[in-house]
Phosphatidylinositol N-acetylglucosaminyltransferase subunit Y (Papaver nudicaule), 87 residues
Amino acid sequence: MVNVSTTSKAVDSKAFGGYFFLLLGSISFLLFLFSAILSKLLPPSSNQIISAIQNDRYYCFLVPLTLPVLVVAVYFHWLSMKLFKHA
């Protein structure tokens, strides 16, 4: 017989893990958005870290240039799954 309290604890821990990863992904996205786009629109800062982020010219081009590579990777993944399915 399944204990109801054990099952609810397992569901709660999975829900917590899901919300944790959603929060972590959202925070990472907002930090990247700030560093790649928004920091360039702000006036120059006296803070060394923010100034280094504002003067960086690498990460603002990194994501747009990885989109074509992502499209090719998704296509090869789809192709390999089709070949595996019909083999």
Observations:
- The chain has a mean pLDDT of 85.
- The helical segments are 4-41, 48-55, 59-85.
